[in-house]
Amino acid sequence: MKREDRIGLAILAGAVGLSAVVVGNPYYLGVLTFVGMYVLIATGLSLLMGYAGQISLGHAAFFAVGAYTSGLLTTRAGFHPIPALLAALALAALLAVLVGLPTLRLRGHYLAMATLGFGEIVHIFLNACVSLTGGPSGFGGIPRLGVGSILIEGPRAWYITIWAFALLALILTLNLVHSRVGRALRTLHTGEVAASSVGVHVARYKLQAFVWSALLACLAGSFYAHFVTFVSPSSFDLKASILFVTMVVVGGLSSVWGAVIGAVLLGLLPEVLRGFRDYDILVYGGILLGIMLFAPQGLIGALRELPSLPRLLASRD
Q: What are the backbone angles phi and psi of residue 145, rounded to the nearest 5°?
């Protein structure tokens, strides 16, 4: 891991710890908890999109797999939340392999089409299978997450738990990026033919990145179910998948930190724009459009260009 990454992790951990002390309003702690879930999902997607060069339009399905598997096993089968969460992760990994194995062997963005179809299938299943999933109304009564008799209770405890896992996922992903796997993925991103010519097993590395991103989305889904204690299909539709992709693109595909910035921004932006009332969607879209027009490399790219801005302005005078 690079020195810059360690500094970034220290700053982020400090900000998380400070917020846990300073923010006392349960509502705002809840918002920050959801932002932590977004960071989990975006971190995995950044490896898939920014390094493996693949797009997933169905990650809301893996988010749903985590939520519904944990919810159903704990409410219907009497599972403890931890084994239920582990079962959800195993199922998500299996589904990721089944979806990714045939499509990632092909060149091009076939994964985007496959995951789009997979996401729609999962969403239709959740709505149609009323006896199991509760249909469009969903189901509640999902127990709180805990270890043994110790339950995660209260907004501050949930905030700390979610962000602890988000930081852990970020550390693991950054280590992956700077490992042999990360170097292979960067080679792959420049061109699959070139990567194959230097001995990179293209399909295997793309599949590994896809499975890792699916696992993090599933983990966030399990946390979501036990935090909200209620799930319904409306939370796992195509709009959610597009939101996850937008977080990575807006933040910047060139760095995992870009995904973190994008997740935090798009997670907090709806709350900031509440004052605009009927115009919040218009302002939201305008902000996203402005970022894409004036920062095509994402926010992380714009931040990297800031030190050279005075020199650029001076050269124009």
A: -75, 145
Query: What is the phi/psi pair of residue 144, to 5°?
Result: -70, 150
C-beta separation of 301 from 252 below 8 A? yes
Question: Could you tell me the pTM of the whole model?
Answer: 0.91
304 CB-near residues (< 8 Å, 6+ apart): none
Q: pLDDT (tens digit, 9 = 90+) per residue, 52-102?
A: 888 899 999 999 999 999 999 999 998 999 999 999 999 999 999 999 988
The residues with which 195 forms a beta bridge, in sequence order, are none
Q: How far is 76 from 74, CA to CA, in rounded Å? A: 6
Pairing of β 230-231 and β 139-140 = antiparallel
Maximum distance among all alpha carbons in the chain?
A: 71
**Cα(110)–Cα(28) distance, rounded to whole angstroms?**
39
Structure tokens at 289: 């459009």
Instruction: Phi first, then psi: give them for residue 230, nearest 5 degrees.
Output: -155, 140
- Identify the H or E element spanning 232: none
